[in-house]
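Changelog-adjacent note: as of this version, every example in the card shows the full chain rather than a window. The one below runs 580 residues end to end.
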Amino acid sequence: MDRKIDVMIVGAQKAGTTSVLRYLGEHPQCISHAQKEFAFFLDENEYNAGYSKAFNKYFAFQPLSAQALIVAKSATLYTNEDAIKRLHEHNPNCKLILILRNPVDRTYSSFLMEKNSGSVKHEFDEIERIINHPSGWEYQVFIDYSFYEQHLQTIYKYFPENQVNIFLFEELQAEGRIVCRKIFNFLQIDPTFTPNIQIKHNVTLKARSHNYGATIRMMLDKNSTFRKLVSIFIPSHNAYKYGNAIRNLNKTKNTYLPMDVGLRQSLTDFFRPFNDKLAKLIKKDLTSWNNNSNSAFLSRCPSCHSDQFNALRKFSRHSLYRCQQCDLVFCNRIPTRTELVANYSQYERGKPGSEVTRIRVDQLLDSFSAFRKTNKILDVGCGDGLFLELALAKGWDVYGTEFDQLAVETCEKKGIKMFHGILNTANYNAESFDIIVYTEVLEHIQNQHEEIGKFHVLLRPGGGIYLTTPNFDSLSRYLLGSSWNVIGYPEHLAYFNKHSLISLFTSSGFKTSSIQSTGFSLDRCRQSGSSAHSDSSSHLDEKLRIKIEKTGFLIFLKRMVNIVFTLTNKGDSLKALFIK
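Full-length structure tokens:
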């Protein structure tokens, strides 16, 4: 006898439903289908052919545990009352998962998906025309699919609220692990299992060719001759994988630019009354949806506050500008908290530091001995806490901050005194630290003077701030240009060279003790064009570091190369010590 669907992800379209399906599929107590959509309740032909045939199509090609939950996903089912009714008739005890995304962003993402496939030829600025003519498939897909409140009311006609788990796309992006735990608890399966949330599935990226996209869409349409021929020889679950691979050939690594500010405001105003009704129904705060928060841009240099800056044409897709006064290169877009939390929750945690890294940290800690008076050291943005873990072993009183809650928990288990979020001086005594460590963090900050001011409050007189940050004047940046993978919004927002770094700290009352420009990353060159999240020290670079440490001549050669890099300011990394 065919198993019934236990869990159905019913929407919303372009709200992370494919990712949730894959995360649930990784859970040992769940079984999901390989195909992106379970079309049975929506597709008339499939439904008329019977559930047994559909079950074999989606689930028969994998072992079925009697205890495992059968999980399916149909991203537009929430919009179709007939399909919801069919699901209820199939299994009235089915549990539903509904993910809701800011309707403005969902509408734009849905449009871009259809644009990639060649379904639409016009640009997004015609969305207002579509709103004013509420008919046709474009209105349904772009606008009606975002009327969540009315669709949810329909769901509640058939399923009680305690069988419907609702959460926001922004929550999934910002706290993916926590959301998965809540879903596992809702389904009464092991909540301690951690899926690989580093992977985001079905992300809308720029297409290489819209004509190619249209050709792929016609070839892979369920009614096409090609699709029918393929289905004779290839099972559906494998055909989907091959089709997806063909679609991915048309994807670039680039995301689309944000929509026009004025158009975003217009859509925000349009959806506001619908959002307000939804907020009351689901009892969630949707204020951020109504605030048009993605339209903020800097009007002054974040370092020296000059309003004289020029766009860097070669980096226009990254919205980079160079200040004429202090030479800082910065992104003028202001990220939202949701974007920031989503970005940092994707960091891979738990990797032990290599032996070479531990040696370098020990050497750095030894160099801090001369500063040791209060015996307190603070690492801002400390990650998994390797530096503070080794400092603790040397007798330091260690403190750390991190944006990612799971990283905070990891560090606390190591005995590190942690604070979650941005650096807050109220959490510490003034002038209490000998050293503040700020490695690979400054480039993430958009209000540099405010941050440096906090250091001035927390450091004792004569205390030091040690930092590292990517060097915008590096040889690798010159070689790779706009493909330099250090550049990436919202992770990196400011890009320093020696001049702009010294200018920032000296204008904030610090003295320059030392500044070096060192290193050249082979991995960075190899990974050019990928995201700033790419791990640039785990393959070629790490192997080379290990090899160099074993050979005296290579150690000498490395020192000579770094001297040249420092003299020419062409090393990948700036390493500096500033004194209060």
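Structural remarks: The mean pLDDT is 86.
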